[in-house]
Specification:
alpha+beta, 8 strands, single chain, 227 residues
């Protein structure tokens, strides 16, 4: 069976119009925030929903991810305990130290709660056996995602993503000097604070996260080095 190209174009235009209606629907406003359709794949199925079955996951919790620790070549960066570890110690009746306090309260990034003096010294010195590995990881966090940057009224940069994990990892890269700035149909733009440079990255292909692979991947080309 053949499907005319004009039909595909018409269907996509209808889905776009439906997304606009959803965004402007007064019955879908919660605490002043409008509905924000992020995908048009399920538009035609929403009208067929009669019952919603939900367990406690995501309903009794905030479903918020914080960037607190990461590991590179066996070296763990980030002091303090994670929320999960803290609750385990509380349940077992053990004591634990208070969470570390940030030395620079003005250096604050949403969803980033990572404090590590050794990491700050490593990134400031820009040398050492682990610097290139850490730099590569942070650059990958700024490149390998499907986040969309949005500029707020106060000119602050906000990341919008279908998964809170993707947005948090992108905020983590931004906190340490690899700021994802813009996205277009060909690629993305990353500002590297340590080099005071703007890096243009062409996204050639995206392999989305699946439960089988347990990872996402991108095939990218850096315009400065052409590799």
């Amino acid at each position: 069976n053949f499907i005319p190209i004009s039909l595909l174009v018409s269907v996509n235009l209808v889905k776009l119009f439906q997304a606009v209606l959803m965004h402007r629907d007064a019955n879908m406003i919660h605490e002043g925030v409008h509905c924000m359709p992020r995908t048009s794949d399920l538009n035609e199925e929403l009208g067929q929903v009669d019952y919603i079955f939900s367990d406690k996951t995501g309903t009794l919790t905030c479903n918020v991810m914080d960037f607190r620790k990461f590991s590179v070549n066996g070296v763990i960066y980030g002091s303090g305990l994670t929320e999960v570890r803290r609750h385990v110690l509380i349940k077992s009746g053990q004591t634990f130290e208070d969470p570390p306090v940030k030395k620079d309260p003005l250096r604050s990034t949403p969803h980033v709660d990572l404090v590590d003096d050794e990491l700050d010294k490593l990134l400031h010195a820009r040398s050492g056996p682990h610097f290139e590995a850490v730099r590569t990881l942070l650059l990958h966090l700024a490149v390998n995602h499907e986040v969309v940057p949005e500029c707020e009224a106060d000119c602050s940069l906000v990341y919008s993503a279908s998964s809170p994990d993707e947005a948090t990892l992108c905020y983590g890269a931004k906190h340490f000097g690899f700021t994802f700035c813009a996205r277009d149909s060909k690629g993305i733009t990353v500002q590297v604070d340590g080099d005071n440079s703007i890096m243009r990255v062409d996204i050639l292909a995206t392999l989305r996260f699946t439960s089988a692979r347990k990872r996402s991947s991108v095939i990218a080309r850096y315009q400065e080095t052409n590799r």
